[in-house]
Amino acid sequence: MEDKIRKVVIVGGGTAGWMSAAMLKRMLGTEIDIELVESDAIGIIGVGEATIPPIQLFNSVLGLDEAEFLRETKSSIKLAIKFENWGVEGESYYHTFGSPGRSQAFCHFHHFWTRAQQAGHKSNLWDYDLNYLCAEAGKFAKLQVNDPVWELQYAYHFDASLYGQYLRRYSEKLGVKRTEGLIEDANVDAESGYVTSVVLKGGAEVSGDFFIDCSGARGLLINQKLQTGYEDWSQWLHCDRAMAVPSERFDKTVPYTRSIAHSAGWQWQIPLQHRNGNGLVYSSHHYSDDDAAKILMPNLESEAIAEPKVFPFRVGRTKKQWNRNVVAVGLSSGFLEPLESTSIYLIQSAIVRLITLFPNAGVTDELTDEYNRQSQYEYELIRDFIILHYYLNERDDSDFWRDARNMNVPERITEKIDLFRASGTLTKDNLDIFLESSWLQVMLGQGVMPQDYHPLADTLSEEQLLDKLAKTRETKMQPMSQMPSHDEFLQMFGKAS
Ligand SMILES: Cc1cc2nc3c(=O)[nH]c(=O)nc-3n(C[C@H](O)[C@H](O)[C@H](O)COP(=O)(O)OP(=O)(O)OC[C@H]3O[C@@H](n4cnc5c(N)ncnc54)[C@H](O)[C@@H]3O)c2cc1C
């Protein structure tokens, strides 16, 4: 077939580039040749340490050994994000990867809990969530369970540079060709507008049938060459800079990310096996870089081991993430702040989507349009979940937070909040990676209390209701006594295989 794609060129070797190379070669390796071009002179962004559970599936499709992966990338386990000072200052809540209670077909567990609350039997909803119990106790084990009530959903904190190197070794072993070189330009076919090759410093050309732009925020092909255009979302997400700095590891490695709100932004703290990753995401309208350093550095809680680095960013997305024969993956496709650790997930999802829609007999408008439709929707869903955190803040210490609370947000968000407040009902949108339990935890954690509950919760007598709650808690607590600490787990499991 004349238009069959035989050669894919990946532009850039950061997390996006090597994840793309590894998965494409693994899946389509017999059909296509892959060449990845990157420049050591430019380097990679090198931050991006917290992930969400689907990363496990990505690694397992690649066939990576989990113990080896943990060792190679200095990973720790992530069960949750702890949000501190996001509602009222001094208060905190967890967004865990688990869910409270036991799932039921028509009526989520929180309806029973809400009924008990209304009858005056106060308890903490998170006490019925194993992820929360383990996060708080600093415990972790890979539980082999038949009953989903004991499922412990987890992701990783890892060193993104080490993950990239690990996947590079993996990809090269499978036959991906890596070319070192600084790309200075790209050639475009005058008739079709398709990219035909990239031109390196010194004049050498790397040609291909299809290009994946993983060149980072600059978007060498998608943006600079094809001028695809960018949709800006800064009217809802007011932060536009981050400052990142690594620090000494703590004695105890907690199995969660910390997200600590400050007067005009928020700080992350991510524990790895060998160090902590830290940073501050902030609005340049409210903080200078000096102000940011004055907030971040005294709050590290361990010694900095490098100078802080500043990363300016623009929240939003590239308008067509697939344009002609170029697909943008990673930072070239857009940027959402790392509040819910979604960028690496968006890389994974883009790669899976691309492989699912991979053209056989050449690029078609139908495939391109479908890819762009799904990507846009997915980006918007994640954007809305991030906006939710800002919109529901209850802080009164700066215009930054007051403005966020008073802004006009996409209707989808207010509809979900109103529905939950009125009836406790949660809905899920197709393609939304954040399930009902995620929306539940952030809404409850930031002060939205349901005024009603599902009628099924009334089918129990008060005594039965309290018994159900007590038994659920007991069941959730059961595995805890045999679990090792998170650090013990990392030591034991890291040595396995
Ligand atoms: C402050 C901050 C914190 C973050 N935290 C998280 C997090 O906790 N979790 C998460 O999931 N994500 C996070 N991210 C996002 C994450 O860092 C990125 O999604 C991820 O690293 C992917 O980057 P990339 O590969 O697209 O780009 P890059 O790492 O920038 O790689 C670009 C590649 O292109 C190459 N290149 C560029 N120009 C040229 C050229 N002219 N010639 C040749 N090669 C070229 C470079 O050499 C490099 O190899 C964070 C981002 C920031 C800014």
Descriptive report:
With 497 residues, this protein is of the alpha+beta class. The chain has two domains: 7-75 and 158-232 and 315-382, 3-Layer(bba) Sandwich (FAD/NAD(P)-binding domain), CATH 3.50.50.60; 100-150 and 393-481, no CATH class. It is 35% helix and 20% strand. It has 15 helices and 21 strands. It has helices at residues 15-28, 54-62, 66-73, 109-118, 130-137, 160-174, 220-225, 289-296, 343-356, 365-391, 399-406, 411-423, 436-445, 462-477, 486-495, and strands spanning 7-11, 33-38, 76-78, 80-84, 92-96, 155-157, 177-180, 183-188, 195-200, 205-207, 210-213, 230-232, 241-248, 256-262, 265-271, 275-282, 309-312, 316-318, 322-323, 326-328, 334-335. The strands form five sheets. Strands 5-4-14-15-16-13-17 form a seven-stranded mixed beta sheet. The protein has a six-stranded mixed beta sheet with strand order 7-2-1-11-20-19. Strands 8-9-10 form a three-stranded antiparallel beta sheet. Helix 1 (15-28) packs parallel to helix 6 and helix 1 (15-28) runs parallel beside helix 9. The mean pLDDT is 96. The structure holds flavin-adenine dinucleotide. The site of flavin-adenine dinucleotide (FAD) has 37 residues, from helix 1, strand 2, strand 13 and helix 9.
- Class based on secondary structure composition and strand pairing: alpha+beta
Strand content: 15-25%
- Terminal-residue CA separation: 45 Å
CATH topology category name of the largest domain: FAD/NAD(P)-binding domain
Q: How can the largest sheet be summarized?
A: 7 strands, mixed
Radius of gyration: 23 Å
Strand order of the largest sheet: 5-4-14-15-16-13-17
CATH architectural label of the largest domain: 3-Layer(bba) Sandwich
Compute the average pLDDT.
96
Structurally, how many domains make up the residues?
A: 2
Which spans have pLDDT < 50 for at least 5 consecutive residues?
Answer: none
Ligands present? flavin-adenine dinucleotide
* Total strand segments: 21
Q: Give the CA-based shape.
A: globular
Number of helices: 15
The CATH fourth-level homologous superfamily of the largest domain: FAD/NAD(P)-binding domain
What CATH first level of the largest domain would be assigned? Alpha Beta
Which range best describes the helical content: under 10%, 10-25%, 25-40%, 40-55%, 55-70% or over 70%?
25-40%
